[in-house]
Amino acid sequence: MFRLITIAGRTAFEIGERYVDIATATSDASLSDPLVAVSRVDELHDAYAAAVASDMTTGLVRDVTLDAPVPTPRQVFGIGLNYREHARETGAELPPAPLTFTKYPSCITGPTSQIPLSGDRVDWEVELVVVIGRTTRHIPVASAWDCVAGVTLGQDISDRTVQRTGVPPQFGLGKSFENYGPTGPALVSLDAFSDLNNIALRCEVDGVEMQSSTTADLIFDVPTVIAYLSSIVTLYPGDLIFTGTPSGVGAARGEFLRPGSVLTSWAEGIGELRNPCVTGRGPLAVSN
Ligand code: ZN
Asked: Which secondary-structure segment (H or E) carries 76?
């Protein structure tokens, strides 16, 4: 197994409280690029084990600010209404196929970034995020995990007003304001999980639990989502798939993030995101 973190744009192994720059650990400078590291994960298991066994240390994780595990993915997919309870709370029909939208890659940020709120209806969506590890097209469901480098945790932050603007509404921009895609803290290899199809996740706003579920409740599980996407588009190393959010979003509660709110998200075996919310800027007002 391995845990990858990114510090100042460079990949590192996270080993308990310490980290080791991956170029130091492997004597291969090219692995410092997160997009390269995720495309060569088969090589990382042994290197990680060796780094764990050594006393190699570049520094302590608590002394650095983590970037997103993959700061510059080529493509970022989001899956809507992928938990039954969440579909119910929105009043929507169950989707006949993975309801897929784009989060533009520029919204991806690290696990402790501030979230500048674009309005008064900005919502949380805690999600398991899959990181693709190889160029993939038409992969069968049965082998779909084989193209995955690992998983991380994400928040699919959503401005409900912008997301719902127009007929038909287009979700992409409302989910892509600056820092609307916090991810991290680490990219964790698949063999670190006892059951890949049952990973617990939850989120809190100012210490109050808002969402708590497990990926066992996904309507379209991870292999099905990957196989479906790859039947239409080519997936590339470093691509992110936000796999959907459980029930408990703010829109269903009539509550939203406010400047000063702290959004805390957690996933079993991955770790925690902690994102303070601040006042941001809304979209430009335009007319037709
Ligand atoms: Zn979502």
From this structure: strand 76-80
* pLDDT tens readout for residues 34-78: 999 999 999 999 999 999 999 899 999 999 999 999 999 999 999
In this structure, the answer to whether residues 81 and 59 fall within a common structural domain is no
Distance 38 CA to ligand 1 centre (A): 23
Number of domains in the chain: 2
- C-alpha triplet 32, 240, 140: angle, nearest 5°: 110
Q: Which residue has the tokens 């109050």?
A: 208
Confidence at 92, pLDDT banded by 50, 70, 90? confident
Tell me: do 116 and 209 sit in the same domain: yes
Would you say residue 286 lies in a domain? no
Q: Are residues 122 and 40 in the same domain?
A: no
Ligand 1 centre and the CA of 140: distance in Å? 24
Same domain, 110 and 242: yes
**Residue 26: which domain range?**
3-63
Distance 245 CA to ligand 1 centre (A): 5
Question: What is the distance in A from the centroid of ligand 1 to the CA of 14?
Answer: 27
CA–CA gap between residue 254 and residue 249 (Å, rounded) = 9
CA of 175 to the centre of ligand 1 (A): 8
Can you tell me whether residue 137 is helix, strand or coil? coil
Domain-located, residue 142: yes
Q: How far apart are CA 27 and CA 31, in angstroms?
A: 9
